Every structure is written in structure tokens, then in C-alpha cells.
Amino acid sequence: MLEVPARQRPEFYLAADEPSLSRTLPCDVRSVAVARRLVIAALDRWELPKDLADRAELVVSELATNAVVHARTRGGSIRVGVSRVEDDRVQVAVTDLDRRPLVRRETGPCAEGGRGLDLVAALSARWGCERRHWGKRVWAELQTAESQQ
Question: What does the pLDDT look like over 103-117, one tens digit per residue?
Fold first, then answer.
């Protein structure tokens, strides 16, 4: 008897005309990889250029890592989202439950860390942090290479 493989359900489903995708994830280092996959799935579904997807993946990785490492909401959660703002522009965001303000550190040439937000700033058209009474939302907007010129 011929076995038919089970149809795999996609990790993230997004209709082509849906403008955003988001998930609440555990405040755990393993969620950083899930955040990257979420962004890649959305940009792939929207058929956006690979260079934009690569930059968005790196930015969301930095934002999610910062939330997990610095938010100190162990046992809590983070919210990761990606939205198509315009045809050539997306916004990635990570929300955490830590009310402390975001700190962009000065780093020396030999520092082993602390450059994540510098990287976010370099790869993004603009970025920011919105404080909430229960935490904060850090976001970055990225655009296609053609739009940057």
C-alpha cells in the first residue's frame, strides 16, 4: 500500500494580502530563532527582495535578543511582529514587559557586546522605542534597497 506523507502545516500562515503577522513567544533565548522565521515567512509571502528579508531578519534577531537578555521577564513573554507599511517598507517590532527605558550603550573597539542597537540603526531607515505603562515596544522600519537611493 502506498503511503501518502502527511501534509505539513506551515509554522506561520499569512495570506498574501494580510498586512501583518505577530506572535507572542516565551521570554526565552529559543524564541529569537522563531522571531527570525516569522519575519522571513512574512517577507517571503509578500514577495519582498531577499536583501530586505536578510536585513529584517538580522534586525528582529537583535531586538528579540535584547528583549530576552535585558527585559528580565523570565516566565513572561515577548511579542514579535512584522507589518508591511508600504509596498517597499516593513516594520519589525518586539514588545516586552520591562518598563525600564531602552539603553543604547557606548562601546569600545574591544567590547564583546553592546552593538546591537547600533546595528539596528545602521540597517534601518528609522527605529525607535515606545514606552508603555506595562513595558516597551522597540521597532525598526526597513525599506528595499531601491527605495533607499
Answer: 766 665 555 555 688
What phi and psi, each to the nearest 5 degrees, are found at residue 141?
-105, 135
Q: How many domains does the chain have?
A: 1
- Which residues contact residue 10 at a Cβ distance below 8 angstroms, ignoring those fewer than 6 apart? 41
CA distance linking residue 41 with residue 33, whole number of Å:
12
Element (H, E) at 141: strand 135-143
- Specify whether the CB–CB gap between 27 and 77 falls below 8 A: yes
**Segments forming the whole domain that contains residue 90:** 20-148
Q: What is the CATH number of the domain that holds 85?
A: 3.30.565.10
Q: How many residues are present in the chain?
A: 149
Per residue in 64-85, pLDDT (tens digit) is: 999 998 876 656 899 999 999 9
Q: How far apart are CA 22 and CA 45, in angstroms?
A: 14
Q: Which residue has the cell 528582529?
A: 60
10 Å CB burial of residue 82 (0-12, 13-18, 19+) is buried
138, 66 Cβ separation under 8 angstroms:
yes
